[in-house]
Amino acid sequence: MKPVNNFLDSVLPIFGNPKDNIPVYNESQRMFISSNYVSASGHLYYKGIRFSERLVMIEQVGLYHNWTYIDGIELYTFNGQERVLIAKKQFDKVFYNMELIKEEVENMLQNYLKGQLLIKQENATEDALRNMTVNTIGTLYENKIEEMAKCISQPTMLALLSPQ
Fold first, then answer.
1. Residue 21: exposed, middle, or buried by beta-carbon count in 10 A (0-12, 13-18, 19+)?
2. CA angle 78–84–86, rounded 5-degree value
3. 133 to each of 11, 21, 80, 128, how far by Cα in Å?
4. Which residues pair with residue 29 across a beta bridge?
5. Which of 48, 61, 62, 83 is 20 to 30 A from residue 38's alpha carbon, by CA?
């Protein structure tokens, strides 16, 4: 266990000292903020990471002047060893809108599930597929930090949260 002073210095360093490059949990957005940087033109970019036991969603966000844009969404699942990209969508000059993002992620997951059903030669009704998708995506937005802490100790999750 780390001594309290080392822990405090790593998350709240004294001014002028570098901070460990670890994600920061943002309660209002219910996601971890990671990999933030400022471009040469002064725009801030970051990755927002939401996850549940089954999925990880990464939002690529850009702050241009006073506007927030969604630049891309990546959706991952786990294969037992590491994360696996199952869907990705890029945006061009689209204002950040949580409902739009949630809808896009639902479509991405539903398309993935339909593809998996075809591969496995199984059937599901549209209603069952829609309910499964909505419930699965809902956990990405509803999880609290305490619930995420249970998942975060897994090595694959720690690797995901590390900036790339």
1. exposed
2. 110
3. 36, 33, 21, 9
4. none
5. 83
Dist. CA 157–CA 152, nearest whole Å: 5
**Contact predicate 89/108, CB 8 Å:** yes
Helix (H, G, I), strand (E, B) or coil at 68: strand
- pTM of structure: 0.78
CB atoms within 10 A of CB 104: 18
Angle, helices 98-120 vs 126-142, to 10°: value is 130
How does pLDDT run across 91-148, given as a tens digit for each residue? 998 999 999 999 999 999 999 999 999 998 998 899 999 999 999 998 888 766 666 6
Q: Rg of the chain over CA atoms, in angstroms? A: 18
Taking CA atoms, 131 is separated from 49, 103, 109, in Å, by 23, 13, 12
